[in-house]
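User: tokens in, sequence out, please.
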């Protein structure tokens, strides 16, 4: 049994006590009010035994990553989330015991569980596997583990999108970015900020900001990036999916449905990419997390709030038939 803690970037700033709270992006709150705050036990030096062997990576963690700011770039997966018009509705339910057909309960079974009817593996924040368009390239479970951590570049075209909601990023936008910030590093991830996701889940999935074929080709062929990503659920509006089709049929992955790119600087952060391994999967539900320098204004820092044990909420999680998922209201 697992649960995940969905914290968004605005949390860190919200509450003076340092406890993450109100989430402007509409996700779950970590807290309404901290109910029972566990005291963090003072670290005691071990009475016996030598300290664990350290490494340069552990020193790097202590020096750097323990103080970095973690920014969530993924949407919460929920049934009222928009999907591409060709796919069916998503349904969440309470998992039921196969013998009785009754939902599990904390009282009788000690635990509860959820059931999901997902009509597609192409939904929410994702990493498209090339097998989505070409069976000879990698499926979800075949994407290498080395995708886990990369340099993150953010190219902002939101001003152009304000003037034209279907604006397609072109090579000139990338060259302009490079004039200001320098050459895009090889093997990095490049996310395109359009602010399309600002009104999520109320978004237009038929007309949206695009990434032009020439731009994705330039990023891969001239700059050798690992993958690019964008806020909408598709790369472009052409009838034959020109940009997306070129990428996936040439063995490149791409990120879709990313958000909070206004909370990430153009250069200097890393991107952590974590996703489940579905056998033969064509898309991946992904948690993208930007790991930004300690002086960056957004994001959460490890140890700045209770993490283990996690704090209790005032309101219990309950099945909400109106929403169609478990919530605290
Ligand atoms: C999922 O679909 C199956 C088959 O149609 C149905 O029996 C089940 O109740 C559905 N579960 C949810 C959570 O919607
Ligand atoms: C908006 O941008 C798209 C993509 O570049 C283009 O096809 C369209 O003509 C533009 N619309 C306007 C009104 O300029
Ligand atoms: C990208 O690389 C190709 C092949 O080397 C080159 O012909 C082209 O001019 C480059 N594009 C740009 C915009 O620099």
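Assistant: Sequence out:
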């Amino acid at each position: 049994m697992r649960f995940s803690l969905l914290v968004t970037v605005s949390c860190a700033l919200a509450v003076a006590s340092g406890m993450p709270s109100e989430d402007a992006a509409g996700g779950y709150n970590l807290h309404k009010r901290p109910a029972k705050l566990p005291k963090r036990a003072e670290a005691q030096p071990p009475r016996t035994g030598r300290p664990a062997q350290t490494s340069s990576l552990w020193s790097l963690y202590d020096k750097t990553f323990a103080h970095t700011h973690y920014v969530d770039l993924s949407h919460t997966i929920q049934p009222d989330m928009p999907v591409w018009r060709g796919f069916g509705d998503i349904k969440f339910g309470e998992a039921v015991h196969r013998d009785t057909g009754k939902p599990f309960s904390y009282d009788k079974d000690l635990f509860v569980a959820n059931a999901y009817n997902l009509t597609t593996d192409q939904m929410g924040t994702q990493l498209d596997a090339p097998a989505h368009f070409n069976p000879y390239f990698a499926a979800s479970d075949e994407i290498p583990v080395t995708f886990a951590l990369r340099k993150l570049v953010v190219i902002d075209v939101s001003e152009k999108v304000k003037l034209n909601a279907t604006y397609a990023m072109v090579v000139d936008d990338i060259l302009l970015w490079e004039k200001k910030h320098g050459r895009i590093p090889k093997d990095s991830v490049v996310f395109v900020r359009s602010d399309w996701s600002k009104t999520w889940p109320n978004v237009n999935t038929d007309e949206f900001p695009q990434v032009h074929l020439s731009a994705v080709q330039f990023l891969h062929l001239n700059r050798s990036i690992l993958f690019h990503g964008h806020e909408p659920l598709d790369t472009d509006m052409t009838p034959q999916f020109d940009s997306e089709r070129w990428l996936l049929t040439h063995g490149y992955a791409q990120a879709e449905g990313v958000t909070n790119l206004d909370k990430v600087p153009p250069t200097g952060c890393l991107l952590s990419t974590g996703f489940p391994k579905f056998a033969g999967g064509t898309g991946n539900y992904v948690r993208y997390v930007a790991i930004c320098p300690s002086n960056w204004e957004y994001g959460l820092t490890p140890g700045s709030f209770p993490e283990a044990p996690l704090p209790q909420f005032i309101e219990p999680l309950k099945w909400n038939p109106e929403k169609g998922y478990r919530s605290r209201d």
